[in-house]
Amino acid sequence: MYFCHAADIWQEFPQLVPGLLVVENLHPKVDVEAHLQPWYARARERLDQGPESAMPQVAAWRRVYAQMGLKPTKYRSASEALLRRFKRENDLPRLHPLVDICNAISLAFALPVAIFDLAGLDEYLEVRHATGTEQYLAFSGEVETPPPGEIIFADSVNHVHARRWTFRQSRRSTVSPETTQALIVSEGMHDTAGVDVPALIDALAAELSTFWSPPRQRTVLTARAPRLEFT
């Protein structure tokens, strides 16, 4: 299997910094609660300094959404949506220990973190423009067809695993109690993403190693080295 961004994505968004982890030996029988709270505290400190829309990480994704022809206040990046919910509720629902840790670190860094169950992917996962022939399975069970040109995460059989880049993941590869292997992707677009994304990946790797096996692979992709191969 492999993960990559299409060449035209790198051309359109040269500021892109993607960080990846491949993790295995996952199971839900761990208690991560005490590890969430320091990251939540860091997120509260960020939010105390001003609205999430003013954070460089979020503002950069808003510019990307505008560049994609989407209204940034209608389609928010995953990190912005998570921050807004956390600000409103001062907490997040507990879903799965892996998801809970990733969400907490996403809040702390104000960067989107996507988790894909490898069992739900076919051959590869590529960030590219839709052709209009792909299918997306929503959490409601409804099957959608993204319009041509939309930026999606797609595999070899045209299953869409995320729509509008970081807007919404698919039910098809979501983490469940049965998940044993996962691909984690975080992408930054702001000026200091070259420092912040590797720091996020390091933080995630340290947390995951506490509860499961150390990540099997970790990397930060570039336009010159745009692909991660894994089994």
Offer a few descriptive terms.
231 residues; alpha+beta; four-stranded antiparallel sheet; 6 helices; 34% helix
Mean pLDDT: 97
Structural class: alpha+beta
Characterize the biggest β-sheet. Answer: 8 strands, mixed
Low-confidence stretches: none
Order of helices and strands: EHEHHHHEEEEEEEEHEE
Count the E strands: 12
What overall geometry do the principal axes of the alpha carbons give?
Answer: globular
- Rg, alpha carbons: 16 Å
In DSSP terms (H or I, runs of 4 or more residues), the helix count works out at 6
Helix proportion: 25-40%
**Cα separation of the termini:** 6 Å
> What percentage of the residues does DSSP assign to strands (E)?
15-25%
